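Handout, section B. The chain below has 160 residues.
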Amino acid sequence: MKYSKWQFTALLLLRVLIGWHFLYEGLVKLINPDWSSIGYLLDSKWILSGFFHSLAASPGLLNVVDFLNVWGLILVGLGLVLGVFTRISTVGGMVLLGFYYLSHPPLLNLEYVLPSEGSYLIVNKTLIEMFGLWVLYLFPTGRIMGIDRIIFGTGKSNKQ
């Protein structure tokens, strides 16, 4: 599939910007010795709140969740920024964002300890970023410009 220079540049910038966001969030959590997801999990509302609360209630599970969250963010971010295993990175990012969204959905009558930056109803930045990753999943930018090109070739096939 041929893209114009502007189309490809926009897709590449979207991939790198979302990747930077993931990478930065993961690194900030990694270097902060006091960071834990416990507050976020306990603040969960809506239909899956019991699941998220149970993760916070078990110290062992909480350690696993924190580890997976930090390293998931870092690896997804690196994958997107470098264009390596981009399809796996986009799916991993969508899974993380899906959990964040389901834990704190922007619905009426749900109030959270940490206020959001605006007034949202159903659509928030998490959902938009998740759909941005879906767009990136559909276009093999890593095979055009990224380490995936070296590993998998130029992207004539859409499979990885």
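Note. The chain has one domain: 17-107+117-152. Compare this with the example in section A.
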